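ARCHIVE CARD
SHELF: 3
SLOT: left
DATA:
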Amino acid sequence: MAASINALLKLSIIASLLIGSCGVAYYYAIYLPRRDVQLDEERAQEKARIAAEKRVRQERLAAEQKESERRQAVAKAGAETRYQTCVKSATASHDTSWADECKHLAEKAKADHEECLAKSKLSRGYCDAAYRNRDGSPNCTLPQKVATDLDGDLNTARNRCQRERKAALQ
């Protein structure tokens, strides 16, 4: 009986070693490779997800930058249009003031000439010399002070237009 117990014991040890080695073999031959494949797939999916998020973020930033550049271009074009309109308005105002001043001085010279002839009983030659006819056209020559004042007003208006354009572009 000791021999059969001994044989049974040897068989049970061999069976337990076989079962244990089957477990170890299963772990190393089947479980670990599957787990490694699954982990590799998860890592690949995570990398793909991160790459997709990065690409979406870059596309969004590029779209935002393009939109910002478009808005800046529109703002710049608008500022430039307003600047050109402002300068044209200032120039038109200057030209109108210049023409009005020319007309006013011509009318005043004519009125003074007529008053000289009517009231003072002076000779026509004296009145003609003292109160010469002035050019009443919009391109007349104005006295230095009047011309300087009008040109100064034009430069001030142009500078204001320039400041407004710079402020709009900032």
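SLOT: right
DATA:
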Amino acid sequence: MNSGPVIHTTDLPDAVTKAKSSSAKERQGSVLPVAELEKQAILGAIAQLNGDKLSAARLLGIGKTTLYRKLKEYEALQ
């Protein structure tokens, strides 16, 4: 059912792989949902860039509106 290539951790940018996240460490070795990977990538990029959301959006290749929408969704889930 896989229609595309597999993404390995070595394919991800350092902002994602080095982001501190207890949930990722707790589940190390298991498969994470794409939504969780996306959330970790966004929050990790923002953290690595000292809160600079515009630079984080550029680094991630998404628009600033998309970034803010995603952040609002994460707040709603808490």
